[in-house]
């Protein structure tokens, strides 16, 4: 494959991945406790420098754009006062725990509700757990004290789905539960919009490069084919 085509194609693939992630982030700009996914991109020059920082041999480096490992930006969001008795937020580190059909999952989304049986649940109907892993009963007044909500420290929590995490709770949590508040989404909608426009333009630049290279190759082939033998 022509080197220019390879470089343009890898760049377009990287921008497509970026666009998909940005679109998902924008769709969750109002989701309480949502944490955006990010995938770092490395150009040839950046990979080359990273490989020579420690003085090690550069070795083989791929051309074009390389995608790094996706990660979740877990920076805490801003607190938003709602005044709702079943809205909870965690100040500091930690997660709420919910019992799903697949087992215990963790979340920072504290927008809870009451089931028909009077059990505290998340928006999907999964029971919220206390510090001992038991379900929480909502009072006749429709309230639950903040002290009844379990907070769990989950080192290396891995995102699963939109707003749930898997992992093993370990250690003493440092976060505290705040009632009548929600943690805002970690998505900056204005910033995401700008990044989407930038990614789209980069993708279009890759398309134009491929079209230009293809046209040049076609013209070269035509000229070679039309040469008269001497």
Describe what this molecule looks like in 3D.
It is a single chain. This protein is of the alpha+beta class and 230 residues long. Helices cover 31% and strands 18% of the residues. A hairpin with a 2-residue loop joins strand 7 and strand 8. The chain is elongated, with a radius of gyration of 25 Å. The two termini are 31 Å apart.
Task: Please sum up the structure shown.
This protein is an alpha+beta fold.
Kindly name the structural category: alpha+beta
Distance between the first and last residues' Cα: 31 Å
The main β sheet shows up as:
2 strands, antiparallel
Helix content bin? 25-40%
Radius of gyration: 25 Å
User: DSSP helix count?
Assistant: 3
Break the fold down into its secondary structure elements and pairings.
Layout: H1 3-27, E1 37-38, E2 41-42, H2 44-52, E3 66-67, E4 71-72, E5 79-81, E6 88-91, E7 96-100, E8 103-107, E9 113-114, E10 120-121, E11 158-160, E12 164-166, E13 176-179, E14 181-183, H3 189-226
Antiparallel strand pairs: 1-4, 2-3, 5-14, 6-13, 7-8, 9-10, 11-12
Helix pairs in contact: 1-3
